[in-house]
Amino acid sequence: MLAGVIFGLHGALKKVGIADVIAAFRETPRHQVHHAELLLIISICIMCIYDIPGIIFARRAENFPRLGLHRVGLASFCAYALSHVLGAPAISSAAIRLRLYAQWGVPRAGIGRIMALSGSSFFLGMATMLGFLLLIHPHAIPVFGGAPGMLRLGGAALAGTAAAYVLAARGRESVTIFGRNIPLPGARLALLQILLAVADISVSSAILYAVLPDAPGLTYFHVLSIFLAGFASGLFSGLPGGVGVFDSVLLLGLSAYLPPATVLGAILLFRVMYFLAPACLAGICYAGHELWTHTKASGETK
User: Fold this and answer.
1) Where are the domains of the chain?
2) CA–CA distance from 267 to each of 205, 227, 290 (Å)?
3) For residue 210, how many other CB atoms are within 10 A of its CB?
4) pTM of the predicted structure, to 2 decimals
5) Is 217 strand, coil or helix?
6) 34-82 pLDDT per residue, tens
7) Contact between residue 197 and residue 125 where contact means Cβ atoms under 8 Å apart
8) pLDDT tens digits, residue range 88-120?
9) Which residue, among 231, 230, 232, 208, has the nearest Cα to 218 in the 3D structure?
10) Contact 133, 202 (CB under 8 A)
């Protein structure tokens, strides 16, 4: 993948200057930015309810105080938004959730269930969407080569993984894998996980589509396909926000429709809106919560 990205970028960036990228960034029409801002608000709302399936799942095994939507929203949003920029999301988001939910009296087993469902939701949603896109339109992702039959076979495997998860969770409380008993959330919660992740990915890719100029042949579904490929590559790289990898895959895919400088300008704007702005807001919220908790604990000690 790295070799392919480097080879593709060498051709795409031959005649691109930093001034061209900045100009494309600044020339984005205001109505497109406002459209993207509205989608960003919807995306943040989805981030705030990402942990709800995990909370329901945790309550089946452990009794703990009612958290309220404000606490669930804080933990879910901070873990989601900050893990994008901290990197290694499986570790960073888990650490944030562990810190917050432990403060609110959630037992360790319950926190484990919350982290398990919240951490797996995005992968399930991505597998579902990428699988169906490859099944329906195998060449919608320009960075994926290969015969349509092989691409559709890969799509069927990805979509089948999510379907198998929902079916496995139906009517049984746990499953044994390699001698370990793993609790299952049930078909309804499993389906809710996937629906939340699909909605999240659909809106976040719509933000990118909103800041791109119109181009012949470039539809939302093409952008969604390229976005999925880029996000999956960046996620598995472990780099903060998939920096470099995510952007390179987007550039390679979108350069078939738009000039590289225009694509880089849109990617830069998307980075600011989807990664940087929510992360800054989440950092302020998390720091404010820690300060309030510390102040309250100091007052009670006195």
Assistant:
1) 28-294
2) 11, 11, 33
3) 24
4) 0.84
5) coil
6) 999 999 999 999 999 999 999 999 888 878 888 888 999 999 999 999 9
7) yes
8) 777 888 899 999 999 998 998 889 899 989 888
9) 208
10) no
